Amino acid sequence: MKSGSKKWATGLMAVGLMFGLVACSSNETDTSNSSSEGDKSEESGKLSGEVTLWTASLSGEPFDSYFDNIEAEFEKLHPDLDVIIEDIPQNEMEQKVLTSLTGSDVPDVVNLNPHYMSNISAQGGLLDLTDLVSKETKNSFVEGAFVSGFYDDKLYALPWYLTTTVSWYNGDHFAQAGVTETPTDMQRVYETAKKVTEATGKPSFYQVVNDGNTVIEKMATLANGEPIVKDGKAVFAENEAIIEYFTLTQKMYQEGLMPQENAEGSFSGGQELYMAGNVSFLESGVTFLGPIESGAPEIYAASKAGQPLSGPEAPMNVAVMNFAVPAKTKNPEAAVALTEFVLNAENQLEFAKTAGTVLPSTLASLENEYFQNPGDSPKALGMLEASKSLSRSKVLLKATENSALLRESAKNAFVKNIQGTLTPEEALKEMQDEWNESFEKTGEKVTF
User: Fold this and answer.
1) pTM to 2 decimal places
2) Domains 49-164+318-394 and 166-316+396-442 share a fold
């Protein structure tokens, strides 16, 4: 490792985990046929010079040690190469990448989400990896995560870590109500909520709303493969499953099966209510249990995980963090090789262990005992359920110019619906009209 080669900016995440050293792997791409304006020694295939990788909000321990090891192992494989790893706050990443492309100080590998990836690639800012990445690497990923790296039929990013939805429920409350399994459709969600509320005397179901994105994801899941937007036109207002979702959430809210706080619907609000024993079940990711484990150990011990509250074949949304290579990289061979190294099965498995609440995107990592037999703690069972649903998970929503408006519209319609200001049909019609007006302005002909 070159002295002073690693520079960290301020990040956001820190997880208190101990972990072993990441395994060394030789699973790297052959980029000897790639054209390059970067550093490469006269010996064919030998990498040299510098290669800079930007991570997103992953500074502090245990991540510093993890990436120190990644840096050291890759430099051991390529002694003439200096790896520089920097951490950038997630909310600054897109702008920093775009700004770098206007000058000469461009990173070689960047950690993006699919939305940032689409925006930057649409502006010509990312390297087309279609012919630069080995077939072995392409075949190593979970399909739904891998396809998220395409834009305009070209591969611009490879998937790294993933999060997907599971159901969390208070096992003591379910037992008190005589409920033995999690519901698998909205009618059963209503029936379960009614039984649990009758047994506990408290609201039981919580729908995370946040900025409206989770509502749109739920709509896309309930559409069961049918688009909710087709060629730039919203087409969900008459979908029976989505109408049922709005009808039953309104009914649950009006009957006190959902808490009054659901009109705000934040993730943190749901955590606080669940931690206090004031709601009994909801859908979220594995990170949901974080503060509950330390702040409410009795609730944590009673917590159980299940599959999402939808049919077993319903498509589920997966949140993807990926790596891409800026088009102006001065060392494309090293950039691609480093990307494949970080994303190989061994390194992804170790990163998942380090973070503790995310899934790897590599199939081989998911076959490891760490995921197949994780133990019986609530968090471990949540990881197991999340890994089970990956086979039907994909990025359900496409990045659009008007995504902020779509989310706001969805949140407003959902809140008006549960509060009874609008009927389910009126709320969906209002949302659809707002979406279509916005799509007409942007001219986007997206389908999702």
Assistant:
1) 0.81
2) yes
